[in-house]
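Exercise: predict the structure of this protein bound to adenosine-5'-triphosphate.
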Amino acid sequence: MTLKIEHLTGGYTGIPVIKDINLEIKPGQALGLIGLNGAGKSTTIKHVLGLLRPQKGKIELNDVVLTQQPTKFKKQVAYIPETPVLYPELTLKEHLELTILSYGLDEKKAWERAHELLKMFRLDDKLDWLPIHFSKGMRQKVMIVSAFLADTSLLVIDEPFTGLDPLAVANLIDLIKKAIADQKMVLMTTHVLADAQLAISNYAVLNNGTIEIVGSLDEIRSHYGLKPDDPFDKLYLTLNQVDHHE
Ligand SMILES: Nc1ncnc2c1ncn2[C@@H]1O[C@H](COP(=O)(O)OP(=O)(O)OP(=O)(O)O)[C@@H](O)[C@H]1O
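Solution:
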């Protein structure tokens, strides 16, 4: 039971973006992918979701190789995208029914869980609403509810904190912590390090498409010459300076 990204080189047609990425996440572990705009975080995630084909390397989850068994691989992965993807003609209830169907979930148990999640995000009285009626934050919450409903072994989250109200951020952090405690694997990109560090203790720093360091906050601080008590956000400024000086 592990996510293994081995020697992954990829990107877009004719445009290599990430180079020789090696990452491993075990059950009960979460990894934060951090780096500047354009560093390759979303591109890495698109590869893990099977939306891009690797030029080199392999992605394997619980012994299922993505390129060999894409459907089996994808059933083990839930995704919270940076920009919510909703079907305009489907109600909230129908979106959740779609999640239940596509992941082959037990309907009764899934709806019990869905109601807990909907209540947590104050969407429980909006099951008949269409996406057009939702605010931006509400759309994001629908994606969060769907992903946690799927209850997969790997949860991939792309920049989740921007646009959510503080209550929703706190709930999301609690859900991520609970997923980790339940031996799930979490891969998350974010720029909001102050929130991320409440749930995630291990980070990979991506710079120009390569991983510069994987480690705890202390290890990353020391790698970039920060003092142990420097606020984590200062790391981000330091990354900026490292990039500008290159
Ligand atoms: N669809 C695309 N086609 C071609 N190049 C792309 C495409 N999407 C991203 N890129 C390029 O790939 C590189 C990495 O982009 P990516 O979106 O992975 O960065 P990121 O680290 O997620 O950045 P951000 O913090 O802004 O979300 C950038 O140089 C970008 O211009």
